[in-house]
TrEMBL record:
<dbReference type="GO" id="GO:0004665">
    <property type="term" value="F:prephenate dehydrogenase (NADP+) activity"/>
</dbReference>
<comment type="similarity">
    <text>Belongs to the prephenate/arogenate dehydrogenase family.</text>
</comment>
<dbReference type="InterPro" id="IPR003099">
    <property type="entry name" value="Prephen_DH"/>
</dbReference>
<dbReference type="InterPro" id="IPR050812">
    <property type="entry name" value="Preph/Arog_dehydrog"/>
</dbReference>
<feature type="domain" description="Prephenate/arogenate dehydrogenase">
    <location>
        <begin position="3"/>
        <end position="294"/>
    </location>
</feature>
<dbReference type="InterPro" id="IPR008927">
    <property type="entry name" value="6-PGluconate_DH-like_C_sf"/>
</dbReference>
<dbReference type="InterPro" id="IPR036291">
    <property type="entry name" value="NAD(P)-bd_dom_sf"/>
</dbReference>
<dbReference type="Pfam" id="PF02153">
    <property type="entry name" value="PDH_N"/>
</dbReference>
<keyword id="KW-0560">Oxidoreductase</keyword>
<dbReference type="Pfam" id="PF20463">
    <property type="entry name" value="PDH_C"/>
</dbReference>
<dbReference type="GO" id="GO:0070403">
    <property type="term" value="F:NAD+ binding"/>
</dbReference>
<dbReference type="InterPro" id="IPR046826">
    <property type="entry name" value="PDH_N"/>
</dbReference>
<protein>
    <recommendedName>
        <fullName>Prephenate/arogenate dehydrogenase domain-containing protein</fullName>
    </recommendedName>
</protein>
<dbReference type="GO" id="GO:0008977">
    <property type="term" value="F:prephenate dehydrogenase (NAD+) activity"/>
</dbReference>
<dbReference type="InterPro" id="IPR046825">
    <property type="entry name" value="PDH_C"/>
</dbReference>
<dbReference type="GO" id="GO:0006571">
    <property type="term" value="P:tyrosine biosynthetic process"/>
</dbReference>
Length: 301
């Protein structure tokens, strides 16, 4: 059972998500951040939206003072909801303060570098990388959380069971497969949506004109484009730049667009139909599910 947790980077959206759910699960939570929201003084009690409260501590996980080191040393669980350079820089110092039965969790969107750092600097520490494959505002219910278990242990299993109790589906993968999967479902998808937007700009077609005349697929892409364009650039930059598998995903997307152009400009309707048949085959048994999901989505747009 997780009784005491420290969420590093708890001022951010991902950190707040974990802090709230851990509080609701009965854990005492300390949120550590260089600057707490509203410049809250150290030790002040701040609500998290669940009726429970976390304690804020202003601190730098890469340069721990004795108070933060003591907090880490008393925790059952430490969640690192921080950028990759910060998480990797902090691994050694954190692991020196951890109890032998404590669990270290990262929420990075790329896993290979962190997993390698943990194996090199803290091979005996229970550690798991979690990646909620959704915007934190959507919540865990009915959504996938990728889990890269670096070192198994009792608390590792306890945490994954807890995440499932929050309504999430835990998808266990190794670090390399995680990054390849993330490149396919995040970097590739974002690149396709951003490419659509950049193409509209290059064609000098105003979004308002598209909206006025567009069928549901175009309106859906506009909605996705607006969501990404309104988001935090650092998040989407990290998806594209930080993932070592993302370049291959973008290359595959560019190559697929070129193949489509070749089929349409130099092929036949039959070759186009063959391409669609290949896609149906790739979707396999999920074809009907995704087709029906699309129909339901289009009812809303």
């Amino acid at each position: 059972m997780i009784k005491r947790a420290v969420v590093v980077g708890g001022a951010g959206a991902v950190g707040q998500l974990f802090a709230e759910r851990l509080l609701a699960s009965g854990a005492a939570v300390t949120i550590v951040d260089p600057v707490a929201p509203g410049k809250t003084p150290d030790g002040a009690v701040v609500g998290t939206g669940t009726g429970e409260h976390a304690t804020w501590m202003r601190g730098d996980i890469t340069a721990m003072d004795f108070r933060l080191a003591a907090e880490i040393g008393h925790a059952d669980l430490i969640v690192l909801a921080v950028p990759e350079p910060v998480a990797i820089a902090a691994v050694h110092e954190i692991c020196e303060e951890l109890r032998p039965d404590a669990l270290l969790v990262d929420t990075l969107s790329v896993k290979q570098s962190m997993a390698a750092a943990l194996r090199a600097r803290a091979p005996g520490v229970q550690a798991v990388g979690l990646n909620p494959m959704f915007a934190p505002s959507l919540g865990f219910e009915g959504r996938p959380v990728a889990a890269v278990v670096v070192t198994e242990g009792q608390r590792t299993g306890d945490l994954l069971t807890l995440v499932e109790s929050w309504g999430a589906t835990v998808v266990r993968v190794d670090a390399q497969r995680h990054d390849r999967l993330a490149a396919s479902v995040q970097a590739l998808v974002h690149a396709a949506v951003l490419g659509f937007g950049l193409a509209l700009a290059e064609l000098d077609v105003p979004a308002a004109d598209v909206r006025a005349a567009a069928p549901p697929p175009a309106n859906t892409l506009l909605a996705l484009l607006a969501r990404i364009a309104s988001g935090t650039p650092e998040v989407y930059w990290d998806v594209q730049h930080g993932n070592p598998e993302a370049a291959a995903a973008r290359s595959a997307l560019a190559g697929s667009v070129r193949r489509l152009a070749e089929i349409v400009e130099h092929g036949t309707e039959a070759s186009f139909a063959e391409a669609l048949a290949t896609l149906r085959e790739h979707l396999g048994e999920d074809l009907a599910h995704h087709r029906d999901t699309c129909a339901a989505l289009f009812e809303q747009v």
